[in-house]
Design goal:
- The structure is a single chain.
- By secondary structure, this protein is α/β, with parallel strands linked by helices.
- The chain has one domain: Rossmann fold (3-Layer(aba) Sandwich), CATH 3.40.50.
- It is built from 4 helices and 3 strands.
- Helix 2 crosses helix 3 and helix 3 runs parallel beside helix 4.
Length: 96
């Protein structure tokens, strides 16, 4: 198997990759017969990307974000970022 290089990464057609990932996600969730997808939303890059993929793959009312800060370790800015993302993407969310 050929190794992926930095040149490969910068030459990816991201719109095609996003469509492929979104289509796979939609198909997987539909085949599972799930009515709602619940995800953890931290406000960081990884969960923001997942939220973008899920809201592209599914109706927004089928995506619920849980924001689960730890008062001993989670900066308030992270919670604010997570709330902002939930608002921008228009998904139901709960801070727990």
């Amino acid at each position: 198997m050929r190794r992926i290089t930095a040149k490969d990464v910068v030459s990816i057609q991201y719109d095609i990759a996003l469509n492929s990932i979104s289509n796979f996600t939609r198909s997987f969730i539909e085949s599972s017969k799930a009515r709602v997808v619940v995800m953890g939303l931290s406000g960081g890059v990884d969960s923001a990307v997942l939220l973008a993929v899920l809201t592209r793959a599914l109706p927004r009312d089928q995506v619920v974000a849980l924001i689960m800060p730890d008062s001993r370790a989670t900066p308030e800015e992270d919670v604010e970022d997570a709330l902002y993302l939930a608002g921008i993407f228009g998904v139901k969310h709960h801070v727990v």
